[in-house]
Design brief:
Length: about 210
């Protein structure tokens, strides 16, 4: 397993993921579980955030208290399914800046097509966390990271719910500097680019579309 890949094998994450995978899980429950898992994944992605201290007063004494250092994080949702992970991270880091990259996957070529790009200023000075539930072929994720680097981002992490070995390899080849955090490294892609065993189309499962 490449060392830039972290699989969060926490029992709560794995239990919630199994519920999400079940085909009869409703969209409402699926969204709620995704939101909950995203908090737990975000805990791992942000584990190495730089810290500093500031002087505060407790009711008893003065102390040097640890606080986050530097500019606020930038969270980038890769539309549309990324929004399901975004909501959970925003519960944890409500002051983060938020951007959106709109990419859809052409079902014939499996290649990403860009239709929207709006990100915070100063990406160069922010820690950036890009989120998309499914790292499948890696084409969309690589394209999104290309765009973020083009906008100045230098310190990027990628957070997803499920990853396929093919997508991890593609990301590692294109962006070896971008660590990936996921809840599961699944077996493989099928012939039309879906992750197996997977959970189907994350966007459709979230929003009840087909
Ligand atoms: N996107 C999805 O939503 N599901 C997959 O299995 C692959 C890509």
């Amino acid at each position: 397993m490449p060392n830039h890949l972290t699989i969060v094998d926490h029992p709560l994450v794995q239990h919630k993921l199994s519920l999400m995978r079940e085909k009869d899980t409703s969209s409402a429950v699926f969204r709620q579980l995704l939101r909950e898992i995203s908090v737990l994944l975000a805990y791992e992605v942000t584990r190495d955030l730089p810290m500093t201290t500031k002087t505060i007063e407790t009711p008893l004494v003065e102390m040097e208290a640890p606080v986050l250092e530097g500019k606020k994080l930038a969270l980038i949702s890769i539309l549309r399914a990324g929004n399901g992970l975004l909501d959970g991270i925003l519960d944890l880091i409500p002051l983060a800046r938020v951007g959106f990259v709109g990419l859809y996957r052409d079902h014939e070529t499996l290649k990403p097509v860009q239709y929207y790009f709006k990100v915070p200023d100063d990406l160069a000075h922010r820690r950036v966390i890009a989120v998309d539930p499914m790292l499948a072929t890696g084409n969309s994720s690589v394209a999104a990271i290309d765009l973020l680097k083009g906008a100045g981002a230098k310190n990027i992490s990628f957070m997803c719910l499920l990853a396929a070995p093919e997508g991890v390899a593609r990301m590692h080849e294109a962006h070896p500097d971008v660590p990936i955090v996921t809840a599961s490294l699944d077996e493989r892609l099928n012939e039309i680019g879906y992750i197996l065993p997977g959970l189907g189309d994350a966007g459709d499962r979230m929003f009840g579309t087909k």
